[in-house]
């Protein structure tokens, strides 16, 4: 749910070779304070492809340049930005596409993203305004105080103004989810237009599957095609699609060699969290109440992350009839009010419907 401090999880430059002979360079980028990410430079056939770009914030662009320098040393020749043929964005979160503004005038590479994240890049300012309005309503319904809501909105907007809209050359659906030897699978949940990319035996996982944490979840009420239901469904899609993959390179943290085991561990985490949410809501409570129980005392941006993660789990349970609104009489009218949820009593134990096997 929340970033692991960078000092605890060092991110390192590394190289990999696929079974088809593609060369992969893993580029570590310090994208936000105490938070690292990876971009990947891939050389195969006539393709010179950069997968994700970092945030563009702080030292991220400098680290991207340094990664290209290290790759050049490994190759024994210079690989400049100008040599890139394509930039592929795994999903529309700024720590993965924010570096595009820096790269845009330095390369003629064609930029691609999934259709459902297209507007995150090309209509960025519009996207931020729309999300801010929805987030404000979500925080009211979550039971967050007025003063606290203003602080959270300010935190959300922090650094967002550093990016500007950039043009995109193609979408993944428009090219039938394939570019030469690169195959894409749409895996919505963590982000609406998230894709994973398969090249020979290697999967570029973006944030869909991470080795150290479960990717952050937010309710679909904030953005369509996010939400825990979509995410769990996408894990199952990936499990069926992963034939031949024995190495997963993700957007954060270290590589994954046991993808099925990692998928099962993530399902178990969410099953446990859903069960705990039901326990908490045996009495009435708001999303803010549940968040405090699940994640304890947090501060800074982690307050928003905890509320959104909790909201995704409450929304999942409510959509499936396991929760009801306890203060329905207060919801009449057009202005949002704090919503109190409560577990629905069923003859069959609700947690039996939330086992990892049933979430698959």
Which helices and strands, and how do they pair?
Elements: E1 14-17, E2 23-32, E3 35-44, E4 47-51, H1 60-75, E5 86-88, H2 94-97, H3 100-103, E6 110-113, H4 118-122, H5 124-141, H6 146-157, E7 170-171, E8 178-179, E9 182-186, E10 195-199, E11 202-206, H7 228-241, E12 247-250, H8 259-280, H9 287-295, H10 301-319, E13 323-325, E14 341-343, H11 356-359
Parallel strand pairs: 4-5, 5-6, 6-7, 11-12
Antiparallel strand pairs: 1-2, 2-3, 3-4, 8-9, 9-10, 10-11, 13-14
Would you summarize the structure shown here?
By secondary structure, the protein is of the alpha/beta class.
Could you characterize the architecture of this molecule?
The protein is an alpha/beta fold and about 350 residues long. The protein folds into 2 domains: about 15-135 and about 155-270, 4-Layer Sandwich (Metallo-beta-lactamase, Chain A), CATH 3.60.15.10; about 275-355, Arc Repressor Mutant, subunit A, CATH 1.10.10. The protein contains 11 helices and 14 strands. It has helices spanning about 60-75, 95, 100-105, 120, 125-140, 145-155, 230-240, 260-280, 285-295, 300-320, 355-360; strands spanning about 15, 25-30, 35-45, 45-50, 85-90, 110-115, 170, 180, 180-185, 195-200, 200-205, 245-250, 325, 340-345. A hairpin with a 2-residue loop joins β10 and β11 (about 200-205).
């Amino acid at each position: 749910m929340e970033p692991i401090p960078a000092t605890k999880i060092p991110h390192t430059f590394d190289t990999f070779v696929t079974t088809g002979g593609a060369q992969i360079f893993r580029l570590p980028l310090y994208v936000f304070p105490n938070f690292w990410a990876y971009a990947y430079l891939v050389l195969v056939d006539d393709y010179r492809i950069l997968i994700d770009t970092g945030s563009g914030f702080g030292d991220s662009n400098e680290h991207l340049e340094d990664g290209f320098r290290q790759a050049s040393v490994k190759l024994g020749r210079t690989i400049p930005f100008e040599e890139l043929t394509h930039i592929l964005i795994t999903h529309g979160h700024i720590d993965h596409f924010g570096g595009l503004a820096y790269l845009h005038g330095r390369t003629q590479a064609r930029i691609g993203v999934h259709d459902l994240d297209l507007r995150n890049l090309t209509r960025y300012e519009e996207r931020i305004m729309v999300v801010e309005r929805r987030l404000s309503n979500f925080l009211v319904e979550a039971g967050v105080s007025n003063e606290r809501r203003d602080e959270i909105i300010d935190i959300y907007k922090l650094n967002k103004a550093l990016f500007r809209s950039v043009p995109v050359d193609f979408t993944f659906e428009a090219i039938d989810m394939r570019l030469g030897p690169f195959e894409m699978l749409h895996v919505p949940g963590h982000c609406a237009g998230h894709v994973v990319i398969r090249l020979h035996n290697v999967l570029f996982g973006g944030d869909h599957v991470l080795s150290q944490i479960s990717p952050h979840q937010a309710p679909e009420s904030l953005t369509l095609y996010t939400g825990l239901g979509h995410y769990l469904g996408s894990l199952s899609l990936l499990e069926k699609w992963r034939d031949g993959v024995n190495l997963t390179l993700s957007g954060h943290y270290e590589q994954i060699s046991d993808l099925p085991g990692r998928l099962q561990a993530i399902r178990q985490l969410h099953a446990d969290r859903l069960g705990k949410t039901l326990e908490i809501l045996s009495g009435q409570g708001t999303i803010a109440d549940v968040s405090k129980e699940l994640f304890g005392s947090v501060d800074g941006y982690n307050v928003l992350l905890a509320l959104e993660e909790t909201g995704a789990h409450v929304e999942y349970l409510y959509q499936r009839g396991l929760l009801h609104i306890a203060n329905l009489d207060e919801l009449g009218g057009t202005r949002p009010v704090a919503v109190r949820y409560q577990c629905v009593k069923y003859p069959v134990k609700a947690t039996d419907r939330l086992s990892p096997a049933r979430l698959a």
